[in-house]
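Re: the request from the purification team.
They wanted to know what the chain is likely to look like in 3D before they choose a buffer screen. I agreed to run a prediction and write the result into the notebook, where they can find it.
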Amino acid sequence: MRAVRFSRFGGPEVLELVEVPDPHPGPGEVRIVVRAAGVNASDWKKRQGLMDPDLPQTLGYEAAGVVDEVGGDAHAKVGDRVFGFCTDGAAQAERAVLSHYAPVPASLGFADVAALPAAVETAARALDQLGVTDGTTVLVNGASGSVGSAAVQLAVARGARVIGTASPRNHDLLRSFGAEAVAYGDGMAGRVRALAPDGVDLALDVAGSGVLGELVELAGGAENVVTVADFTGAREHGVRFSRGDQGRALYVLGQIGGLVASGKLRLPEVRTFPLDDVADAHRAGESGGAPGKIVLTVDAP
């Protein structure tokens, strides 16, 4: 089968489609014929040598497709449409093994669901770590991106009051999610206090924009703030940095269908590229010019 791989660090030009052995599922896992695979910022960070020093490397942690091989005790059968996580980081390929997965809702396509696992799991995990529940007021810094949008919607679904920071052009989007919108940048804390004079109960930083000190002050202490984007700032301010190896919110995969059907989770805008055009997909994502989520698609065999 063909898979995306790079053997040296650099720009998108180092990416290539190469023949690699077919993977096989272990206990509880399934192998899918990949129909769509998500592209995330971690992919180009890996490609640039900012994460894993080993070479060569494959790419991709989320995918959707049709099961064609199952491991022992797997909760799916050959022919099922599923989506989920490829913990081997090799989802951008013609076949991939999913360690955690859920059925593709009948109303959704492969590209729709391949765009969801990483963002929705990250958002749910951070909200769990904060303890966002009915009646809490939570501030989401960077609320209009893929993770931020998911965090806003999941928090609203939990019954929280949500204030989200974003550029003014995205304020209507946040309001449509049920959040109150404020502009980020200088004076952000004052604009939040205009809506919540006593501050907020909890704060989630998705943007990594250097405002953790302000979030700590607004939320009444570092223990009430979580960041998924600012590792250095987290150490400086004593804030928790949320990582997947601290316990993942994998349960949310099984909830996505119901959340979408009930209107509590809106699908992100998706921009697709054929697997063969993976370098162009990286260029689009890295430039920040592509709206929504980038997904690679694979034609049915």
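For the purification team: The longest strand covers residues 30-39.
Please add any questions underneath this entry.
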